[in-house]
Specification:
It is a single chain. The chain has 387 residues and is α/β, with parallel strands linked by helices. It has 2 domains: 134 residues, Aspartate Aminotransferase, domain 1 (Alpha-Beta Complex); 238 residues, Aspartate Aminotransferase, domain 2, CATH 3.40.640. The protein is 40% helix and 14% strand. The strands form 3 sheets. Strands 2-8-7-6-5-3-4 form a 7-stranded mixed sheet, sandwiched between helices. A 3-stranded antiparallel sheet has the order 9-12-11. A two-stranded parallel sheet has the order 1-10. α2 runs parallel beside α13 and α12 packs parallel to α14. The structure holds pyridoxal-5'-phosphate (PLP).
């Protein structure tokens, strides 16, 4: 039998990082000591008090059943408490918060809840791939909003024609941003909210990196007046508490949006394992010094990498948040060609900006998810490459 993928699946662009993955595996197979500054997955462990809470919860037979889909009230209250303390945002845990299997779950599925075939979805480019792939699965039309250095890597909403805004159903924003590390301020969100009200689209804000910052804490989109009228924020324990493998996140904001997306999710999954939600409660409601410690680790790594790259003549802006460094290509190279030389000649893995969309061309992304001595080793290897 000939197994044909669905038209929608077949229509997706090829997985952008497959080629690098192949080269990385080849380098490892050759016995090379590969330094991976590629994937954005924290190398630091989940803090011990969170693991302990999970261990206890796993042993409780009451938690072995199908969870209540919206999430346990304890988890939703923990999210509301976190939002109140950290952002000054008040959330009703009953109607304005819902647990997800990581924020990717919510981000990838929300198109099915709100997008009809042919609707426009405003997607930052470069950006996290699920905003666009989710749009395609729902037969929507991704409209790319270029993130450029001239516009501080924020979408230029004034440049979007009214004809596009009026058929838009969703606007995705991601601050602090992957891959550019840009941070949006209140003025940006105020403009987005004004347009959303005028043209009737939903703002979907991805705040996965809100706690990974080096100076001023980034704001929540929901702290901006009017946000809760038009939007929803996706968040997660993954980056804040080094919990990428646990799959626990949430979305929160406008009660109707939360309810509608929740109704969709009722049809896809049966909620998050309650022991994992207990770990989420321990994370969000527990001591936060572990997060400050992670920040200082990333800061030290950032300073080493940024300082080293600048000494070597690379062109970049110092990231104020996220654990990424977004760097201009060496002149004369596409981002894919530069990444290829890095792997082949220095056994260093970086991600080509073009993998995040065509407006990412011209840049490379380095992740700060390896120890400082590995970053120092990478810099020593970089010295030897003649571009
Ligand atoms: C890592 C990341 C997330 C978080 O994904 P989870 O599903 O919560 O693990 C969300 N958005 C962006 C842009 C990310 O890089």
């Amino acid at each position: 039998m000939n197994i044909e993928p669905s038209r929608r699946l077949a229509g997706l662009p090829p997985y952008p990082f497959a080629e690098i993955d192949k080269k990385k595996k080849a380098a490892i197979a050759q016995g090379k000591d590969v330094i991976s500054l590629g994937v954005g997955d924290p190398d630091l462990p989940t803090p011990a008090h969170i693991v302990a809470a999970a261990r206890e919860a796993v042993a409780d037979p009451k938690k072995h059943h199908y969870p209540f889909e919206a999430g346990t009230i304890q988890f939703r209250e923990a999210v509301a408490g976190f939002y109140s303390r950290r952002f000054g945002v008040s959330l009703d845990p009953q109607s304005e918060v819902r647990a997800t299997l990581g924020s990717k779950d919510g981000l990838a599925h929300c198109h099915f809840a709100f997008v009809n075939p042919g609707d426009a979805v405003l997607v930052p480019d470069p950006g996290y791939p699920v905003y666009g792939t989710g749009t395609r699965f729902a037969d929507g039309e991704p409209v790319l909003l270029p993130l450029t250095r001239e516009k501080s890597f924020l979408p230029d909403l004034d440049a979007v024609p009214a004809t596009v805004l009026s058929r838009a159903r969703l606007l995705f924003v991601n601050s602090p941003n992957n891959p550019t590390a840009a941070v949006a301020d209140a003025a940006f969100f105020e403009k987005a909210i004004r347009l959303a009200k005028k043209y009737g689209f939903i703002i979907a804000h991805d705040a996965a990196y809100s706690e990974i910052y080096f100076d001023r804490p980034p704001i929540s989109f929901l702290s901006v007046p009017g946000a809760k009228d038009v939007g929803v924020e996706f968040h997660s324990c993954s980056k804040t508490y080094n919990m990428t493998g646990w799959r626990i996140g949430w979305f929160c904001g406008n009660a109707e949006i939360v309810g509608t997306l929740g109704r969709l999710k009722d049809n896809f999954d049966s909620g998050v394992f309650e022991a994992i939600q207990a770990a989420g409660v321990a994370a969000l409601a527990g001591p936060q010094d572990c997060v400050a410690e992670s920040r200082s680790v990333y800061r030290e790594r950032r300073d080493v990498l940024v300082g080293g790259l600048k000494r070597l003549g690379w062109s970049l802006d110092v990231p104020q948040a996220s654990f990424y460094v977004w760097v201009r290509n060496p002149p004369g190279y596409t981002s894919a060609a530069a990444v290829e030389r890095l792997i082949e000649e220095a056994a260093i893995v970086a991600v080509p900006g073009s993998g995040f969309g065509r407006h990412g061309e011209g840049y490379l992304r380095f992740a700060l998810t390896v120890p400082k001595d590995r970053i120092e080793a990478a810099l020593e290897r970089l010295v030897k490459i003649r571009w």
